[in-house]
Design goal:
Strand order of the largest sheet of chain A: 2-3-1-4
Helix content of chain A: 25-40%
CATH superfamily of chain A: ORF SCO4226, nickel-binding ferredoxin-like monomer
InterPro entries (chains A, B): SCO4226 (IPR042557), SCO4226-like (IPR025336)
Pfam families (chains A, B): SCO4226-like
Structural class of chain A: alpha+beta
Distance between the termini of chain A: 17 Å
Number of domains of chain A: 1
Number of helices of chain A: 2
Number of strands of chain A: 5
Largest sheet of chain A: 4 strands, antiparallel
Strand content of chain A: 35-45%
CATH topology of chain A: Alpha-Beta Plaits
Largest interface: A-B, 26 and 26 residues
Shape of chain A: globular
Order of helices and strands of chain A: EHEEHEE
CATH class of chain A: Alpha Beta
Protein name (chains A, B): SCO4226 family nickel-binding protein
Oligomer: homodimer
Chain lengths: 82, 82
Amino acid sequence: MAKFLDMHRGMAGITGDQLKRAHSADVEIQDEEGVTFEHAWADPEEGVIYCLSEAPTADAVLRIHERAGHPADEIHHVPLSI
Amino acid sequence: MAKFLDMHRGMAGITGDQLKRAHSADVEIQDEEGVTFEHAWADPEEGVIYCLSEAPTADAVLRIHERAGHPADEIHHVPLSI
């Protein structure tokens, strides 16, 4: 398993409730790809969301986001962390 | 206080030790601006680093990173999180 940080753009105006619903949509199907979404952070003003996950591959994360209706714009494998 | 996520590019090849030293350089002077650096994640292959912090303003975070020798390329106020 590896750690990934992905980013979604174009989410300006997102509310706390919408973020929770989007996260729940991911969590609901994450087991099908062996992904665990751990955290999400949103900047509603500039419309950016970051998600931290553990997953077997970046593609597994991207597939879950895609199927949940919010494809990611960028993803990074982050093997180093503090 | 508010939560911020910033990003540094151009850090390809960074090692775990270098990440720790860079983080320590921030932590050493963070109190001068009321900033607390909580986490950092690095993708050494694509040279991207993300830092999560609590701070009074984005500028306070940027000033610490700048003075510590590694200015950030992007920063987002992330008031929403899961």
